[in-house]
Automatic annotation (TrEMBL):
Protein name according to UniProt: Guanine deaminase
Lineage summary: Eukaryota, Fungi, Dikarya, Basidiomycota, Agaricomycotina
Annotated InterPro entries: Amidohydro-rel (IPR006680), Guanine_deaminase (IPR014311), Metal-dep_hydrolase_composite (IPR011059), Metal_Hydrolase (IPR032466), Metallo-dep_hydrolases (IPR051607)
Functional description taken from the UniProt entry: Catalyzes the hydrolytic deamination of guanine, producing xanthine and ammonia.
Swiss-Prot/TrEMBL catalytic activity: guanine + H2O + H(+) = xanthine + NH4(+)
Organism name: Psilocybe cyanescens
Cofactor note as given: Binds 1 zinc ion per subunit.
């Protein structure tokens, strides 16, 4: 398996032929086919390229040797809020460190060998995607609560403050038991990865040991994540509250040190470690002035440390906040007053911000996590995301489990679309008057490029990882999903590809791919996420689950090491 922290020289690889995702060898014009594995050599097919597939190599027999991996097939790449590229014939190379070495669009099968040669890959192993499979950047969940996953789908009758008291705090208090925490978090992180979340901003509970366990599991499972322990020393029930400001800060510092020891900064690398700590004042209401002040001091001494919190989710919450902080000009001003509003602050919800607050957030270059499912489910309201985008504020998507009832960013995409349509309808705009290419977003629907961007590159910007993940470019980390919209994926809500598409002109292939993307965003689920890669390592997805079922060592003794095909 690749270790992103290690370096190793890359050399031209031996001929392996053209394989699909499952190690099945297919024949392509201009490519010599050789089979180095006994399990591959048992059968070869002579069908033309793009017609497809032949034999199965069990996952565990695929060699995890240190060499570049080259994918050939359809790739979707976000470009901006108004555009993405859809390339049906893309060649994409991932180096041994899990970074994208290069990618080339529009490589016809007969030009494959020549293109590989031009990159110095004379006889390389190429993994060819089948029709109905495509690569997109992994999803980025900019706001979720790991301990609340067991509560998903309950408590929707409450609004925020009652929901915290009746549903959330009782469950979170159980994480005082580290064994319970560990068992629960294993399931939580596995679900998040298999749902396509390659980067996740996790809130833990207030417990130090349980949150260390969460970081351990994220690290072992190979997900990219920020993990924080909630700071909360007032306005919480007696059974679930930090004893003092001093205890809260001491535990926070201990967690930061612990997480940084898990995955140190790779030597000679500008890339950031996979798992990082994040300051997590739960929200202004739950923190005394002293605690917020100490957290501000901690933040100012550590400029790289991310900060996550909630803002303006619910009207009762906002008025309570104003009462608690009468000297602050507004809710955003509370965080600003304590030095907690800066370029790496992630503000969840932002449903009811005033214009002054939006301007302040923009001036501090903080980001907003849009959590539309939760905003609907807890009757919080409809966040005017288009207004924030027009102001140039960074915006990503969050599931906000369990205010939200799904761990999947696909669900957040769907509700972000509905949320924007509500804004549009309320403003009296009609869909037909809106252009997908428009660069003004207030009171308009969100287009497919916008939704894709928010779920990937937008989230990366909110996390301060825009140079590393969120889209595909040479030098960026290969954090990616291989999506499968073929009928065999077994998702009855996707009218997917059944059989092989007829030979199409290039422009028609592109349109077909765009159609697959839209269907996946609105009807897809984890059955359509075939493989999940983080930093080039194969860490989850449908194929991964199948491998675990086939191999008892996946279930007993937990082989949690990331794997690279
Ligand atoms: Zn939340």
């Amino acid at each position: 398996m690749p270790n992103p922290g290690q370096t190793s020289a890359r050399s031209p690889t031996q001929a392996q032929g053209l394989q699909n995702l499952y190690g099945e060898v297919i024949r392509a014009p201009g490519l010599k086919i050789e089979t180095s594995s006994a399990s591959i050599s048992s059968s070869l097919c002579t069908v033309a390229f793009a017609a497809i597939i032949l034999l199965l190599v069990p996952e565990k027999e695929m060699s995890p040797t240190a060499k570049s991996t080259i994918f050939y097939g359809s790739v979707i790449n976000p470009i901006s809020l108004v555009s993405y590229s859809a390339s049906p014939l893309c060649l994409l190379a991932v180096d041994t460190l899990g970074n994208i070495d290069w990618l080339v669009d529009d490589v016809e099968p007969h030009n494959l060998q020549e293109t590989l040669a031009s990159k110095g890959y004379i006889d390389s192993e190429v993994i060819a995607l089948r029709e109905g499979e495509f690569i997109i950047p992994g999803f980025i969940d900019t706001h979720t609560h790991a301990p609340q996953v067991p509560n998903m789908g309950t408590g929707g009758q409450y609004q925020l403050l009652d929901w915290l008291e009746n549903v959330t705090f009782p469950t979170e208090s159980k994480f005082a038991d580290v064994n319970f925490a560990r068992k629960t978090y294993e399931s939580v992180v596995r679900r998040a990865i298999d749902s396509g979340t390659t980067t996740c901003c996790y809130y833990g509970t207030l417990h130090l040991e349980a949150t260390k366990a969460l970081a351990d599991i994220v690290h072992a499972f190979g997900q990219r994540a920020f993990v924080g322990k909630c700071n909360m020393n007032r306005n919480c029930p007696g059974h679930y509250i930090e004893a003092s400001q001093e205890d809260s800060i001491a535990d926070t510092q201990a967690l930061i040190s612990y997480i940084r020891s898990l995955s140190p900064q790779p030597e000679l690398s500008t890339q950031e470690p996979l798992v990082q700590p994040i300051l997590t004042p739960r929200f202004a209401i739950s923190c005394t002035d002293d605690l917020l002040s100490s957290l501000g001091d901690l933040a100012s001494s550590d400029p790289k440390l991310r900060i996550q919190t909630h803002i303006s989710e619910n009207k009762s919450e906002i008025s309570f906040t104003h009462k608690l902080f009468p000297s602050a000009p507004n809710y955003a001003g509370v965080y600003d007053m304590f030095g907690l509003l800066r370029q790496n602050t992630i503000l969840a919800h932002a449903v009811h911000l005033t214009e002054d607050e939006v301007d302040l957030i923009k001036s501090r270059d903080a980001g907003i996590s849009h959590c539309p499912t939760s905003n609907f489910n807890l009757s919080s309201g409809v966040a005017p995301i288009g207004v924030y985008l027009d102001k140039g504020v960074k915006v990503g998507l969050g599931t906000d489990v369990s205010g939200g009832f799904s761990v999947s960013i696909l669900n957040a995409i769907q509700n972000a679309s509905i949320s924007a349509k509500i804004c549009s309808l309320q403003a009296g705009n009609s869909a037909s008057s809106e252009s997908a290419k428009s660069t003004s977003f207030a009171n308009k629907q969100l287009s497919i490029p916008s939704l894709l961007y928010l779920a990937t590159a937008g989230g990366a910007a909110v996390c301060g990882l825009e140079k590393q993940v969120g889209s595909f470019a040479a030098g960026k980390s290969f954090d990616a999903l291989i999506v499968n919209v073929r009928d065999e994926a077994g998702n009855p809500t996707i009218w997917g590809l059944n059989g092989t598409s007829p030979q199409l002109a290039a422009e028609d292939k592109k349109k077909l791919l765009e159609g697959w993307l839209e269907r996946f965003l609105f009807c897809g689920d984890d059955r359509n996420i075939e493989r999940v890669y983080v930093q080039g390592a194969f860490v989850g997805g449908r194929t991964y689950r199948r491998g675990r079922m086939d191999d008892s060592s996946f279930l007993v003794g937990r082989d949690t090491s990331p794997k690279l095909i």
